[in-house]
Amino acid sequence: MQNVFSQNKTITGQVKDTSGNLLPGVSVLIKGTQKGTNTDFDGNYSLDNVSPKDELVFTFIGMNAITILVGNQTKIDVVLQENLESLNEIVVVGYGSKKKSLVTGAISSIDSKQIKSSSNQRVEAVLQGRTSGVTVSSSSGSPGSGAKIRIRGAGSSGNSEPLFIVDGMKASSIADIAPADIANIEILKDAASAAIYGTEGANGVVIITTKRGKKGGLKVSYNSQLGIQTLKTNMELMNASQFVQYMNEAGITSVVDNGYDTNWIDETFSTALMHRNDINLSGATDKFSYYTSASHLDQDGIITGNNDSFKRTTIRINLKADITKWLEFGVNSTYSSSDKSGIPENSDTRGVIQNALILDPLTPVTYANGQVPQFVIDNANNNDVPLLTDNNGNVYGYPSYSTGEVINPVAYANVINKTTVDSYQWLTSTYLKFKPFDGFSFTSRFGYDENQWDTKNTINPYYVTSEAANTAYTGSQNIVESKRWLWENFASYEKEIGNHSFKLLAGYSAENTRVKTIISRSGSTSIANFTGFDFDLPDFNTQINLVDPSPDNMVSMFGRFSYDYAGKYLFEASLRRDKSDKFPTANKAGTFPAFSTGWVVSKEGFWKEDSKLDYLKLRASWGQNGSRSNLSGNSDKTYITSIINGQTIDYLGSTGAQITGYSNLNLVWETSEQLDLGIDLRAFDSRLSFSIDYYKKTTRDAIVSDGSLITPGSAGFVSNEFNAGTIENKGFEFELGYGDTTENGLRYNINANLSTLQNKVTEILFVPEGTSLTGAGAPQNADGITRFTEGQPSWYFYGYQTNGIDPATGEVIIVDTDGVNGITNADKTNIGSPHPDVLFGGNISLGYKDFDFNLQFQGTIGNDIISTYHQPSRAITNKPLHYFTERWQNPGDVATYPGAGSVIGSYQTDLMVEDGSFMRIKQIQFGYTLPEHIVKRIRAKNLRIYVSLDDYFTFTKYKGLDPEVGNFNFNSIGVDRGFFPTAAKAIFGLSLDF
Known about the structure:
Elements: H1 2-5, E1 9-17, E2 27-30, E3 36-38, E4 44-50, E5 55-59, E6 66-69, E7 78-80, H2 84-87, E8 90-93, E9 96-99, E10 107-111, H3 112-117, H4 123-126, E11 134-138, E12 147-151, E13 163-166, E14 169-171, E15 182-188, H5 191-194, E16 205-210, E17 219-230, H6 240-249, H7 264-268, E18 272-284, E19 288-300, E20 309-324, E21 327-342, H8 352-358, H9 374-382, H10 409-416, E22 417-434, E23 440-459, E24 462-463, E25 469-470, E26 473-497, E27 500-525, E28 543-544, E29 553-565, E30 569-580, E31 589-600, E32 613-627, E33 639-641, E34 643-644, E35 647-648, E36 650-651, E37 654-655, E38 658-661, E39 670-683, E40 688-704, E41 722-741, E42 746-756, E43 758-764, E44 773-774, E45 786-788, E46 796-799, E47 802-805, E48 812-814, E49 829-832, E50 838-848, E51 851-861, E52 864-867, H11 882-885, E53 913-915, E54 918-929, H12 932-935, E55 942-956, E56 975-976, E57 984-993
Parallel strand pairs: 1-7, 13-16, 52-56
Antiparallel strand pairs: 1-4, 2-3, 2-5, 5-6, 8-9, 10-15, 11-12, 13-14, 15-16, 17-18, 17-57, 18-19, 19-20, 20-21, 21-22, 22-23, 23-26, 24-25, 26-27, 27-28, 27-29, 29-30, 30-31, 31-32, 32-39, 33-38, 34-35, 36-37, 39-40, 40-41, 41-42, 41-43, 42-50, 44-45, 45-46, 46-49, 47-48, 50-51, 51-54, 52-53, ...
Helix pairs in contact: 8-10
């Protein structure tokens, strides 16, 4: 017996969560006994008389239990991982929250731990690849640019952005919310979940809840990042020798090798730095909690020079106080200011990147040793403009052969054109919550959202060609202000009677939004009179337009009834009625109902207790949502003006008038109707989670704001907004997750999501049968390159189909699609769709002891991209390399691209359309949490350092700069006009908690 007892020993250690936070109160038991202890305030424990054969079981509420064999160890440190079911136990829904197990709609959640591992600078980027059915594409890779979020496809012919709710308040944008301030994000995807928001839920809802203070004394957290940004692309352009040969084959023998060989991609892009610092202080007592933070981001762009940058400072204060047992008071407020400096982009004629892709490689960046060609000096002297020079006085290269609008992109970005946007946002909400008796609460919440954007554009004088010239100092300024207040009052009552649980919600809200252009002015001054870009000077103040705001008031009534029997049979119904003065008098009000049901099969008596499948729920929902986001207001008014461009209309000596906008008294609400069928399950002690949804979303009476699309050119005016037709999106969504901690302490969590999408226009209004709405324009196709047509995907690509290259002539073979002999515009048809067939994403998280690893990826399959940066009117322009390597040269050649002399004829064909499918590794991050004895020396609780490679690796067949082509306009999705690519980032960071 003495020998046995001599083997017993004392085991000590410390318990943390996956973020390195110490866990007090963790139960540590010897398996099969009642002998054990709990961790203290610092997460430490000590347990005596433990045998090497014993197993220690560590358990904590909300965490996965872990069992470890003692063996020869005397110190056992443990990291507990959140239980997948507990992690999402409570989700935020419209005007409340509920248990995940009782949710009957399609809701995806992202919590603060997922956000914390992200090194993204903007909230929109945090969403990329993390949930099924959600597409996030950058509107530009330039610093400070936002992203477009689509939930279950583009449900509108116009703006398809979801509704953003931040701490209960509608927000015009989430661009200025610091990611470090976010506690969790809920994405309401189906109509039943979003219907409580009625008129603005048609495109889904993104609910953001920011952090609150927690008990445990003052907590201070500091995060810092330093990033190095570069361009990662596989795109290649023709070099000088290839370009000369190509032009000569096209019959342009004047193009000869002049000794220059400029790679304009390398010269236009460079390495850039970025850094971000976040600090927050938080804490709570029994009756009061506080959270305050400050965040600053400073990011340079990867365009050579210093004219693309972004700076943002955000300050947040969240307070909550229990004034009495029955009265709660809270304030959530954030203020953000930003300064963005940008370059001309997203233009197929005047963009910096577009010029980089087509300028001949025989043009130098700058002329060496003062060897400036005489024609450059003569052009400047003859037009009384200065030469374009860099900071060192070197003259920028003027095009050696390219003509027209084509100019040196480095000069364009740095000394010709500059745009700055100074903006601020103040978003605040305050509430009182009354709880006079058990189960009942009444909340009165007032929110205010104010934004201002001051946009200035300046153009210096220069002369390259008659098409690319400016002989004065030209500028413009626009100041736009948006103000919204929202007052909501809602009551909630819940009651349990035996196994029956009821919850009622009823509310009323009123809101007022005003968007007005405070200043809109432009002008120019001569070179001789120029003293600086001061728009208050008389020379610049040539045009001032004060635009009156359109009325935008809305009142709403809403209600919701929720019922469940023993957590097994679930039912929910909601109804909202909105009245908005954006619509004509007869159609101001819209009513939006929704219903959903659920059955938790695993709670039935026939369910086996020892089943590996722990939880199974079946869901179904139907509902309708509205949209008014594509309306400016006043659609029922006819506009008449007597002044155009600041001048009174004169008609034979009398004052004239002109209609500028024609009323549409028949305009009705855009309504999205959606059916959703879903399954949720958990298995293997909730280590595995899986959900599948089928959805069908039909948007009827889709609103288009551009009335010119249905107004004959001979009318002399344009119509106001109109209802364009019906759009259908349908598909499947899958989400899969598996996580556990092994006996040797390896932590792992794998999540993947995939969704399918079919987009189609099923009805089109206000145009003759068989015709279309014309969308985005481009120089290569005067008929527009996107169309909105019944039976086709919304805003598909429009042009000629081809059937190879004629081996005899090297010309493109155009397919005759209309059955009439000869190729005409009538043969143009669908040549591609910007909508992906499949979207996917995933995340792999690993941890062992103090080390952690995170990999995140996302991608699309089946979407197309059309290149429109080519200039059909400019023959001497550069091309991507494959135009050279895959071209026709001699009779009999079987080629992919036409001969050099026939390439212009291919610009409006499907040869410009490429497969846009891609997979991008969004993040590869390695982290290390320093040991406690080191951290204690600086009196800290936790210190983690990490390195992250973001957007570093992309796998795609697309031969352009970036397959993740952004979209500025609803009808230009997938259109590459010379897109500002997403920068690859190497980020070094640390997180420090006190």
